[in-house]
Fold each of these.
Amino acid sequence: MSNETPFIKLSIRPCWRQFVIEQLLWMILGLALIAAHMMTSFKLHDVLLIPALLIVTYLIFQAISFFRIRYIVTSEQIIYLHGVLMHQTDYMELYRVVDYQQHRSLLQQLTGTKTITIMSGDRNMPNLDIIGVEKDEEVVQEIRKRVEFNKKMKSIYEITNRM
């Protein structure tokens, strides 16, 4: 068996539009509070500034966390890197993958992104959502090729009892 593989490493990062979709309500609320703070003239208008600053702080932390997400698809694994204060790396062996799903919410359809769910027989990570993928990227087909290659290399065959 040769150690060479026909696949190059594939690195996927979520699109920034996915962050906007996920945090849209907080963004609108924060902007509304800031606008209300700037437009009001009563003495306690600074009360509006505290929740606005808390929301902005929350959004900054969420943005840092979101933009640290990375999915690396090697010839044998999907590696999921995420986290800010505690950076975590999760691994999914490709030969354990059993199914794939692509889905797009209404906002994802409007922004041209999608979420791909990879289902596997792995106990630690049975499902992996790859979020914010550009709608035109053929990620599922590429992962599927690698899954089939790994199953063939390890002589793993799926047996079903469907009629």
Amino acid sequence: MKKSTLLLASFLMITVLSCKQKNEKNNDKLGLDSSSLLSKKNETICYSYIKNNDTVTLSIDGIDNTMIGELTYNLYQKDKNVGIFEGQMSGDTLIGTYNFISEGQESKREIVFLKTDEGFVEGMGNVEEKNNMMVFENRSKLNFSSGLILKEVNCN
């Protein structure tokens, strides 16, 4: 394993653990509106998409108005992506950044999910590179009708 990959993996693990510790110390209700993902403090919520040979998993914790957790894409005949998602709810939309490793390369991209009755639907749209990160050209033009639907599941 490359030294940079090992360092990034260690950093990601420390980040997740420290966020969980902060969440455990938080005795106040989360500062989210009625579309809150978390109904209780200290709660990790898990979502997944499984179809054919494709699997996507998201586990998130809420800290104040920030959602942070692990996101993994394991799509058939594509490189596996494993990393940390950090975002914020804006109404029914979760907008965030995905820091991940794929084939030993560290990457960063913007991800937008729409919260529906079914779960989270990933938004699709044209992207461009800005400041070493892939971002959507225009969030208002995102297509949620063809995105993956991540449904809530038990965290195991």
Amino acid sequence: MRKIIEDLESLVKEVLGRDFSHGYPHVERVWRIAYDIVEHTGLEVDSCLLDISILLHDIGRVIGEPHAYYSALFARAYLEEQGVDRDFIDKVVNAILYHSYSYARKHDIKPLTEEAKILSDADKLDALGVVGFLRVFHYSWEYGRDLEQTLNHFHEKIFNLHKLMHYEYTRRKAIELTRITRELVERLINEIGSAKGQT
């Protein structure tokens, strides 16, 4: 299984590239956050299941939306080709589908494993704080969202992510990071207001 993980790591680096928002740097951050969660919660996890789920959770973005659906399709096909056990594959697919709040809510997908919950929390924590603030604007510039749409995204989604956490540790962390994100957004709005006042 470790050989599969090594091969996937190389593949995901090549496919997703160095894009800050959803490329391999995001995967690396989610990986680090996930094991930080494991350490601070004392959870026992299947590291192979967690690693593969993390590596493949966003690979479908190169195809389109819903990216969780396409990521899961790729994961199933790839792992079946490698002869991986069907039950293991089902757990990976569930974790990938569940990490997307909008997709999971729309299709009533529930987490089958702790690894699915960890991936979900880690992915959402990377959407908060200074990193999350930068990711939102990076994504907006890339896909043509204007400033008003971008600010609405913070209020409609980002500021509510802490409510979706599964563990006390991640909830506390999310609340703190949300506070930082709010401060950054408020500072930006204040500076924009000051600039308008000077024109």
Amino acid sequence: MSASPAPPADPIRLAKRELRDHCRQRRDRLDEAHRTQASERIVSALARWGPLLSARVAFTYLPMPGEVDVQPLMSLLPHVRWAIPRLVHEPVRRLAFHVYEPGRLIQHRYGMLEPDPALPEVALEGANVIIVPGLGFTRGGHRLGYGGGYYDRLLAAGAPAVTVGVCFEALVLEDLPLAAHDLAVEYLVTEDAGLRSCRPAG
């Protein structure tokens, strides 16, 4: 009895995989000085942004190697209650956000730091702003992630928070194949363009 043929590959998934490789290569070509200066300009734009200035609670992230470093925001805006993500695998895959305490961080095998799981978890409904990292973004706010789906689930949860994507200008994409579950952030910030709205005009 012959084996059943393999199901056809998902063309959107394949296209995203190729784009991830392209974006990683492009990001790797940015030298450290460029990434540092670009991160500083992005942080400066966010530190002057009204929704973040008025926020009580903000979700942010600690960067993996090569990503935009927004950590200085937490010192620049000490009135904000900051929370950072931890990858949770069971019973469902999700991001759990915990209160940020710099002395209680754990190295994840992916290379980023995570909060100690014993720290208080902050409810998604309590966040006023969510800062979203990504390998790349379109000008319309659609995100190219790393393939785990964690931020897809976060954005799909429908939190009342304002969402802002963060990436280097070199990683702004002209186009991105989209699946039904792909949702856009409301704003995007890069070192060259600063903060811009991703909401459709009109």
